[in-house]
Structures are given as C-alpha cells and as structure tokens.
Write a structure and sequence with these properties.
Blueprint: H1 2-17, E1 35-38, E2 43-48, E3 52-53, E4 62-67, E5 71-73, E6 76-79, E7 84-93, E8 102-111, E9 117-124, E10 133-134, E11 140-150, E12 154-165, E13 172-173, E14 178-183, E15 187-190
Antiparallel strand pairs: 1-15, 2-4, 2-14, 3-13, 4-7, 5-6, 7-8, 8-9, 8-10, 9-14, 11-12
Amino acid sequence: MLAFKRNFILLLIGALCCIWQSSWPQSLDDVNPEQFSFPAGSAIPVILQEGVSTESAVPGQTISAMVAQDIYFDSHLILSRNDRAFGHVAQATRPISGRNAILKLAFDEIDLVNGIRIPIKALADTGSPDFTWGGELTEGTKPVVVPYHVEGIGSYGRLMYRGPRAMGQQVNIQAGTALKLILQEPVSLDSQS
C-alpha cells in the first residue's frame, strides 16, 4: 500500500507540473522534502487577478495572479493557493488593418504566504509556441472571383476575399481567467510545512 501511495504521489505531481524531464526524481528517496526544485518547462496553475486588454495595456504594466491550488510533494506543501505570482505585460501590440492585436504575459516572482519571495522566469501558456495571444491575419474585405487556369483541364473561378484587409480585433483576458505559467528556468522552493 505504501509503494502504491508513493507512486501515485509521484504521478500526480508529474501531471500537475507537466514534468517529464530527466531531472525529475526517480523515487521519494531522491528528494529532500525541505527543498523542492521545479525544472524548466514545469507548469504552475494560477488565476489572473485583474483583466488585461491590448486596448489599454502597455509593456511593463504590472499584473498579478493567485496560485490556483495547493501543490504538495509527499505531505509537504510546496505552493499554497494563497501564494501570489507577480509579472508584467511583456508585449502589447494594438490591432492594425490586416492583423489582430498581440499580447504576451511574463511572470517574475512568486510571493509565498510566509513572506518569502521566489524569483521566477515564466510565461503564460497560450497554446502558441511564442506564448502570445492574437496576431492572426484578418480576411480581405471584398469578395472577388479569381480566375484560375489548370493546363489540360481548363479554367475555373474561385471566390476569394481581396482588397484591404479588415481591421484586427483587440485581445482581452478577463480577471479570474485560469492560466498555466510555464517556467523558462528551474526554480527551487522550500516546503512551507
């Protein structure tokens, strides 16, 4: 039963943190419970505390988030849901004709409830490889039949949108939005219990 519990805990922490790297401990015997290290690429679930919009955001603007859930390793509390993450707007580009706005959030610090500040380098996961929201191209504004000719088959017309592209849309991230912070560098934390 103890072996099952130990393996379950390792699996749970791995799933929560999205850690599948060689630096992950092979057993609980390899871990000092007073010091825990999150490898680069680990995910920390947070809840954004204030909304951010490309309509008003500027690079460097301060943002904050709360850790979304307690994170334990074995029976030791590593991160509390009362811990706060602080960061800034890394990129905020207004929409233009032909492209939606672009927003990127970076996080620099986690403040633990016991007053300890842990420097981090993390980006908000957006599902995009460059960690940005937006940036998509907009469609053209006028439907036009464009003639195509295929040698040996013939010609046909295809409906396409041409002309000036439509104005891009703003990016709005609401307060209370659940985010995953993806660590860009390893972070060491002391257990809080």
